[in-house]
Design brief:
heterodimer; A: mainly beta; seven-stranded mixed beta sheet; 11 strands; B: mainly beta; six-stranded mixed beta sheet; four-stranded antiparallel beta sheet; 10 strands; globular
């Protein structure tokens, strides 16, 4: 099973600041990699797929990079609605796996 | 408008069974592989199972293999999850979602609102 390790677990930032979230895979998943955002009481929402492609309707302040085992989600300037939990996910191998999540909270 | 509507969640005793349903509308259901993903209270996301859109191929997480069965009825645009031998650690919100297939083309992102399964005596 591919293990995805996200860091940090909690990121405390202020609106307008830049957020950098990391995810490391236990083996290469090539670019079969995605980032999701989840707010309390809601289903997850796809932000980035294939490591770097923004999903439909996702603002340009969200960007993804990386390949193989190391991936990064960057939010260039945090908006109030961006404070949420972010999960990485791989679809290179069965079983599909998610990272443990990074909570982006208001400082 | 795309909708995925889960139902069937309930309180069940350990060892019991439950069948979840996910009614889809607004998109070409038979063209999508469909997954179940669960989230225990206050915890992260865990993928449970997937079924392909066409030939009905299935894959399961080890944690549910042999106890859960995924199926679909493309004529009724409905996905199912039969859950047997339920355990306390199966307690979670269960989502149906279009996560696609490994190494396949990217798929549009559709999720239901979730249905709560509670396993407790």
């Amino acid at each position: 099973e591919i293990v995805l390790t996200q860091s940090p677990a909690i990121l405390s930032l202020s609106p307008g600041e830049r957020a950098t979230l990391s995810c490391r895979a236990s083996q290469s998943v090539h670019n079969y990699f995605a980032w999701y955002q989840q707010k309390p009481g809601q289903a997850p929402r796809l932000l980035i797929y294939d490591a770097s492609i923004r999903a439909a309707g996702i603002p340009a302040r969200f960007s993804g990079s990386g390949s193989g085992t190391d991936f990064t989600l960057t939010i260039s300037s945090l908006e109030p609605e961006d404070f949420a939990v972010y999960y990485c996910q791989q679809r290179g191998y069965w079983p599909l796996t998610f990272g443990g999540g990074t909570k982006v909270e208001i400082k | 408008e795309v909708q995925l509507l889960e139902s069937g969640g309930d309180l069940v005793q350990p060892g019991g069974s439950l069948r979840l349903s996910c009614a889809a509308s607004g998109f070409n259901f038979r063209g999508y592989a469909m997954s179940w993903v669960r989230q225990a209270p206050g915890k992260g996301l865990e993928w449970v199972s997937v079924i392909s859109g066409s030939d009905g191929s299935t894959v399961y997480a080890d944690s549910v293999k042999g106890r859960f069965t995924i199926s679909r009825d493309n004529s009724k645009n409905t996905l199912f999850l039969q859950m047997n031998s339920l355990r306390a650690d199966d307690t979670a919100v269960y989502y149906c979602a279009t996560l696609g297939w490994i190494r396949g083309p990217p798929t549009k992102d559709y999720w239901g609102q979730g249905t709560l399964v509670t396993v407790s005596a």
